[in-house]
Write a structure and sequence with these properties.
homodimer; about 475 residues; alpha+beta; BirA Bifunctional Protein, domain 2; Rossmann fold; Translation Initiation Factor IF3; 3 domains; 7-stranded mixed sheet; 5-stranded mixed sheet; 23 strands; about 25% strand; globular
């Protein structure tokens, strides 16, 4: 009874996915709306996920030789204008500081939407010789892009992210870095978030404003829409020329450097929710679950139950498992529902009968399966179960996604494909007009080039196809 | 010879402390000036210090039950005005966003100078019942205060910090939290930064705009000036009333809650530099040293030296020591100077003769002492030496400071005391007029009440003293 009432608080995931998402993020206290339209407050349960994402990714960056730094929030408006495409792309959505310290500023300052310009300005000072290269710097910070339509984690005027900015002596080296970091993201998404991703180059229309080439990683959400979960840009000499990043090379000549940038954001939290969530709420992959296991005492007033829970909690903590015991006055059923909604990977139930038999009951949030385990070795069992869940969640997500990638050779096929929640592979002639028309008629955009695949004809105009594209509706 | 040339790049610490500071922070690449006046770029070597500060402090906060969250950067101007003292204190130094997304905003938004108001707004929504209390939340973020005179780390228009914001059911509990977090800061400053601090209550003039009481921790820099290194505020019901943070108490009555806030910032990096630095440059306490030990190969071309360095580096890494080996082409003398300037606590020299004798040479940055150690057990020796340095640096700083706390019972005595680089204890009648006059005539401000001490007469007016105050010139 309690269960139905509780679950009823969340909209039906099959019938109204957007409302399900909103219900889940608010009711599990991941996030709340800020007082200014389009802003979010990341609450402790949500921020804990971001901290885990940071910890894992930051370690991967450092293993690649990347160091962290911090650059100023406010960028002179004139910096944006130095790279023509960049200003065109970002000027319409910046927030502008016009007054400070009680006075009108001589030059308006932009709240960073991304930091290529201000970092380029510093790099031009720091990079003098080939000995100074490569520069491999990342920053974790807030950025702001004024958006008309917003949703927590997916699109908000302010969000948290990391942005890596590197400088290299040659195009080859910069291109290699672009790919390397794209692969770091892919590894991270799959191994830590259990989200299978498709990586590939973006079309001219979809690329970053100012890049030579943008590579994206796209993940399929449970409604079949795509979420761009990270991007890596090869910037060529565009920003080096705009900001005069030159170095004295070994051959004695002054040369413009080659730069890259790459980023992922709190959007990844949205990707986790929409990849793994189900009718009961959140389902966290263990590696980024704020709580990996919750212990629920059953009939706790009977002798020894709470003590056994506390002892097991200690053991799990020693095994580096993020665990907590729910000693609250709520009924076991209520607790089950709450922790299921909050997406905790493993629930451990301990009651008087279990104790007497030296057992515990384990519940897997991802598959909803129950099994018994010996109390004595419960910590080891839970540790190995968490590893299993992490692996199984990736495979389950991969299977779901692979079943929903279809091929279309006509506009009606493409439309039907995306309308029924698929990624659609289709040929493209390479003309922007066809790309625009696909968007207009099907609401699907070109997500990435399908690497290593070719097509006969353009899905739109029927002319010879130059590329195979993965089209999808997207967040 | 090389040594003198190298060191000559830094101004004489005895003759020109401010220039010494500027030279050291720039030349060691801790920081650089940003393109907008008053802003700084925290470079990788400086940011690594901040990461270590964050790691230690964050662990201490979590041990006290504090969770992290993230609140929006932009605050509606009207929020500031809800607390009368708060707006008076902060309005003159805010940066204001007036335009966003290509349009003029209906209400200007302030870039947060501190977040009591926007967090108070959210807490009024989250706190409903005594069951929701206490709320213990912290955020790590950037803040902005438009300053006329700026110096890297010490005073910049944007800086990084953490701000804790807690809500409690009673005044006693909130006051206790205020003291608890002040003590966390004190423990952290002394144990991690090796900076002895004096904690105490601030005068009305010096307190946080909107607080009932502000407690500060003050550290003596090498020039005898004080640096406010952290503050903890008891806010009473001021913000609870301004933002309607009410809860239904056990007795069925609706009551206003009591709040606190507390923060430390990247200013702590300035405190480290000016507490421990010397004529050769930086001196890092091991716990926050980005590099704790540097290995310098001597006559590296001779057989086995580089290999021995690499093997030792591995051993040190396994012992969780942050170590690096300088294989560059520079001369040993040049390397010694560079790593001394960069403040690395321990230098390990390995040459062919050392190798033959199974020894290494260890150099302590803090005392400039050299000693031999067995190569075989070098990792253990270095680990224990780092612990020793950490402890000795605190004691040395404490001794220096304690020798420079004097007592004065006249304005001329007070002036002479601060002019010769001391903290001066003196009686105060409690009148703002006397506090202002001391500032005007000696450039010293009341840092904190000297706890548990009393004085006979006011140093300024000669009337009966109500308090003993620690006066100092301050950053």
């Amino acid at each position: 009874m309690a269960k139905e009432q509780f679950v009823a608080q969340i909209a039906d995931i099959e019938k109204d996915f957007p409302q399900w998402y909103t219900d889940v993020v608010l009711k599990t206290r991941l996030v709340d709306y800020g007082p200014v339209k389009g802003t979010m407050v990341i609450r402790p349960y949500g921020y804990a996920v971001w901290e885990l994402i940071q910890k894992h990714l930051d370690g991967m960056f450092k293993a690649e030789g990347v160091e962290n730094a911090y650059f100023p929030l406010l960028i002179p408006m004139s910096f944006l204008s130095k790279e023509a495409e960049h200003v065109e792309g970002f000027a319409p959505e910046v927030a502008v500081v016009t007054h400070a310290g009680g006075e009108k500023l001589a030059e308006p300052l932009v709240v960073r939407p991304t930091s290529e310009t201000i970092i380029g300005n510093m790099y031009s000072k720091w990079v003098q010789s080939y000995r100074d290269l490569p520069v491999l710097i990342n920053q974790w910070c807030n950025v702001m892009r004024w958006e008309k339509t917003t949703r927590p984690f997916l699109r908000t005027s302010e969000f948290l992210w990391q942005e890596g900015h590197t400088v290299h002596a040659s195009a080859e080296e910069a291109e290699e870095e672009t790919q390397k970091m794209l692969n770091v993201y892919k590894t991270f998404a799959e191994e830590c978030l259990a989200i299978p991703v498709i990586t590939g180059r973006k079309t001219e229309k979809e690329k970053f404003a100012g890049a030579v080439a943008t590579y994206g990683m796209e993940a399929m959400m449970k409604d079949g829409k795509s979420l761009q979960a990270g991007t890596s840009h090869y910037l060529g000499q565009n920003f080096a020329k705009a900001f005069d990043i030159q170095f004295l090379d070994k051959d004695g000549a002054h040369k413009y450097a080659y730069t890259t940038s790459w980023g992922v954001s709190t959007r990844l939290i949205g990707a986790i929710i929409m990849t793994h969530g189900d009718a009961r709420g959140l389902v966290f992959p263990p590696k980024v679950a704020p709580v990996q296991a919750v212990i629920v005492p059953i009939a706790a007033k009977k002798g020894g139950v709470n003590e056994a829970c506390a002892a097991l909690e200690e053991k799990l903590k020693k095994a580096d498992i993020r665990v907590q015991t729910d000693y609250s006055e709520n009924s076991p059923g209520w607790k089950f529902n709450e922790w299921e909604m909050k997406g905790v990977p493993v629930r451990i139930e301990i009651g008087p009968r279990d104790l007497a038999e030296g057992k515990v009951m384990l519940f897997r949030r991802d598959t909803l399966e129950k099994r018994e385990a010996a109390l004595d070795s419960a910590a080891e069992t839970v540790a190995s179960l968490l590893g299993e869940i992490q692996k199984d969640m990736l495979e389950a997500a991969r299977k779901r996604r692979d079943e929903r990638i279809v091929y279309a050779d006509s506009m009606s096929g493409l439309l039907a494909g995306v309308e029924t929640g698929n990624f659609v592979k289709a040929g493209w002639c390479g003309d922007r007009a066809c790309e625009d028309k696909v968007k207009e008629e099907t609401a699907a955009s070109a997500r990435v080039y399908a690497e290593g695949e070719s097509a006969q004809t353009c899905v739109c105009c029927g002319k010879k196809a130059k590329h195979m594209i993965i089209f999808a509706r997207a967040y």
